[in-house]
C-alpha cells in the first residue's frame, strides 16, 4: 500500500512539473506578441505630442492659478442657476401654448362624435368599401 501511495505522489509531482514547463512553440509566439504590445505601448505614451499636451495643460493651470473664479460665492452660483432654470422653463410662449391646448380640449369635450352609433360606423365602412371596389373594377 505504501508503494502505491508513493507512486501516486510521484506521478502527481511529475504531471504538475510537466504542466508548468514552457512550450517552446508558444513562447516564440508569446515573445512576438509581447514585443508588438511593448512597441505599441511605447509609441503611445512616449510621443512628443502627448508630452507637449501635458506641458500645455500644466502651463494653463499655472496661469489660471491666481485668477478669481467667475462665481466666487454660493449666492452667485444660486442666482446663475435660478436664471438659467427660469429662462428654460417659464417662457410665455410655452405657457400660452399650454393654455390654448387646455382651452381647446375643454371646448371639444361636449361636442358630439361624428359617428355616435355602431350602425353609423358600419354604414360608413360599407360605403367606403363599395366605392373602393367600384374604382378597382373600373380599372
List keywords for this structure.
139 residues, mainly alpha, flat
Folded structure, characterized:
By secondary structure, the chain is mainly alpha-helical. Helix content is 80%, strand content 0%. It is built from 6 helices and no strands. It has helices at 2-20, 24-45, 48-63, 74-89, 92-108, 118-138. The protein is flat, with a radius of gyration of 41 Å. The mean pLDDT is 78.
Sheet having the most strands: none
Low-confidence sequence ranges:
none
The 3D shape can be described as flat
> Could you estimate the helical fraction of the residues in percent?
over 70%
- Rounded mean pLDDT score: 78
Oligomer: single chain
Secondary-structure blueprint:
Blueprint: H1 2-20, H2 24-45, H3 48-63, H4 74-89, H5 92-108, H6 118-138
What's a concise summary of this model?
The protein has 139 residues and is mostly helical. The protein is built from six helices and no strands.
